[in-house]
Specification:
With 657 residues, this protein is of the alpha+beta class. It contains 19 helices and 27 strands. The chain is globular.
């Protein structure tokens, strides 16, 4: 029946003669719906009903069909059952029946994007799909049409994530300098661009495994490996059945390509470096990632569910991360701390702790890189850093809730501001649970910057410099905090970068892990790389500007805060954000002190010098007293005989009053 109907709808797309000698039925409608008629009426029926809402594909028309090919759900009325015949379309490529025209157009487009244009009923050869070759970081990748739209292609490639790939490469390069060789996994390969860059630049220092559960993506990864002259080792089963593909000796670079679910491969094998980049949230793969990752290994994850992390879909954030968040001025850092809290909880369930090396939140993604510390003690230390945040919705002051099991009657009193006492109702909310520890490791970031300079990654260097300044909470002028006389440090771009000297500790056989003493020393070295912990969160200078006043330039304002005795730096989360340990009240005081009025009259040029907030209060109190005197004078005049107030009896005030 299906083949006959498809033949009929193709027949209906052919032109019909003007006149028929006898009555004929409609080939796409049942006889009880449209009776047999003459040619002119049948032609009008086909044009107005079937051809008008048809779907065109390579010169053919897929007309809507009313025949009983697709039976809709039965309707029960009393004791009788009626089966309604639903109108539908037939796909000439895969013989699927689809009810709506928009769904049919999308169905055909998906076939075209996948290169499936050969029809079962069309004998003419279909044109082959043209693949495009893109180049990034000296690595060529072959992509399908619409490669930048994940819903329309299996092998998704986003050129806007180039910065994200370079950050991950620098983190892997730092780990490769610590121990060699390392086994790294790209759990969601897609086109395989990330794993190819690892193998092409780091070569024998890494053993790359690219995984994807989609068969078309695995095929494209193999083609891209051959395009970059890499040897491929394919594993498509859960058992260790490998098949080598490609020419070359054993000394050539070899990439292992697997076709498994990401959770399965991370359960079966152990890795030193794991990167998770699914479409959306990555919380479904965290437990598997931390189960078999090696000690002092690195787990990096990229979250692209921006709508939930940036508090546009708060119910989704509560469902995925178990975290209550609202839209704030520091929403990007709030998103990063939300992801890290989920990572810390997953690691703690596997008796592992984490040390956050890097947390970046930009327009399209949130990237978190953590080092895994095995043992219950590091797991407990990491779990203690997950706390709730008290956020004032009136002035946007914030503070992490104090540790302890005692329940406070009014936790909003912990806020430095007094909005909870002066404003009616509840002015603050409790957000979290969030990560309350540091977001950066200064020593690791400096080594990442050194690797970026060494491999010529120019796009990521400005971001890394900003993040290093943010980790140390210092301005760019005070960037070089180390003296050049220190050992094991190299100067690159005006920055003294510490490079690990692992030659004395690497007197072991290749492929073997270091002993416990070397591991302990590496942990101590990593802890000494941490400088004083940077302040949590930041303030937006535009959010707290004074109406009617011109605020100073951002760099000058940073100097003013630094001269006042506070630690200060810019932040990559917000181009107009200021990370400082100054309270919000002092932040506003310094901002008001060095702001100038926008109008020409009144004060002369120069900053508005207000040493204390009390001066503003005295001016408001004087204005209130003057208004009270006016009201009292008016009441006295109204109580007179005439009941009229004369202008000459009223006191006059100058503009200064």
């Amino acid at each position: 029946m299906l083949d006959l109907n498809c033949w009929l709808l193709l027949l209906a797309s052919e032109p019909i003669s003007e006149e028929f000698s006898e009555k004929k039925p409609c080939p796409l409608c049942p006889e009880e719906k449209f009776k047999a008629c003459y040619g002119h009426k049948l032609h009008r029926h086909l044009q107005n009903l079937h051809w008008k809402i048809s779907v065109e594909f390579e010169g053919y028309r897929m007309c809507i069909c009313h025949l009983p090919c697709r039976i809709a759900k039965p309707n029960f009325v009393a004791d009788q059952t009626f089966s309604k015949m639903g109108a539908h379309y037939h796909c000439i490529i895969c013989s699927a029946t689809i009810t709506r025209r928009t769904d049919m157009i999308g169905h055909i487009n998906r076939h075209v994007n996948k290169g499936e244009t050969e029809s079962r009923f069309i004998t003419a050869p279909a044109p082959k799909s043209s693949c495009e070759v893109l180049k990034e970081a000296n690595t060529d990748v072959q992509v399908l049409p619409n490669y930048f739209t994940p819903q329309k292609t299996d092998s998704y490639f986003n050129p806007k994530m180039k910065l994200n790939r370079q950050l991950i490469f620098c983190a892997l390069a730092v780990l490769a300098e610590e121990r060699k060789p390392i086994e790294c996994l790209d759990a969601f390969g897609a086109t395989g661009i990330m794993g190819l860059q690892w193998a092409k630049h780091l070569r024998s220092s890494v053993k790359v495994t690219i995984n994807d559960c989609n068969e078309n993506s695995v095929t494209m990864i193999q083609e891209n490996c051959h395009l970059n002259k890499m040897k491929v080792k394919v594993n498509t089963k859960k058992e260790d059945n490998y098949e080598a593909i490609g020419d070359g000796d054993e000394s050539t670079d070899t990439i292992e390509v697997t076709k498994m679910d990401a959770n399965v491969i991370m359960h079966l094998r152990s890795f030193d470096f794991i990167h998770l980049d699914p479409f959306g949230t990555s919380v479904n793969y965290l437990d598997s990632a931390f189960r078999n990752v090696r000690n002092l290994g690195i787990v990096s994850l990229t979250s692209t569910d921006i709508s939930s992390l940036y508090a546009k879909a708060q119910h989704v954030a509560l469902r995925h991360y178990g975290c209550n968040i609202v839209r704030t001025e520091y929403y990007k850092e709030l998103a990063a701390r939300t992801v890290i809290a989920a990572v810390a909880r997953s690691a703690a369930r596997c008796n592992k702790g984490i040390e956050v090396l890097l947390a970046v939140a930009l327009e399209h993604f949130v990237l978190v890189v953590v080092r895994v510390l095995r043992g219950p003690s590091p797991a407990d230390d990491s779990a203690k850093k997950i706390r709730y945040l008290i956020h004032c919705q009136w002035c946007e002051e914030r503070i992490f809730q104090k540790e302890g099991n005692m329940v406070e009657e009014n936790p909003y009193q912990q806020l430095p501001c007094d909005c909870h006492g002066s404003m009616p109702g509840r002015t603050a909310v409790i957000l979290g649970p969030l990560w309350s520890g540091a977001l950066f490791n200064t020593g690791f970031l400096r080594r990442m910057l050194f690797e970026a300079v060494q491999y010529g990654l120019d796009e990521v260097q400005p971001l890394l410099k900003t993040v290093v300044c943010e980790a140390e909470c210092t301005t760019s002028k005070n960037f070089s905090t180390h003296s050049p006389s220190d050992e094991n440090k190299q100067e690159e771009c005006g920055v003294y970068i510490k490079t690990p000297d692992m030659l004395a500790e690497s007197d072991v056989m290749p492929g073997k892990r270091k002993n416990n003493e070397v591991m302990r020393n590496a942990t101590k070295r990593q802890k000494t790389d941490n400088s004083a912990e940077h302040p949590a969160f930041y303030y937006n200078i535009h959010r707290h500007s004074i109406k009617g006043m011109n605020m100073p330039k951002l760099n000058k304002f940073l100097n003013y805060l630094s001269e006042a005795g506070y630690r200060v730096s810019r932040t990559h989360f917000d181009p107009m954000g200021v990370r400082t340990n100054a309270p919000l009240a002092q932040f506003k005081t310094v901002l008001m002190k060095h702001s100038t009025p926008t109008y020409a009259g009144g004060q002369t040029e120069g900053p508005l010098h207000l040493t204390e907030d009390v001066q503003v209060g005295d001016q408001l109190q004087a204005a209130t007293d003057n208004k009270a005197k006016d009201d009292e004078f008016l009441e006295e005049n109204k109580s007179g005989d005439s009941g009229t107030v004369f202008a000459e009896d009223c006191p006059t005030y100058s503009a200064a009053d």
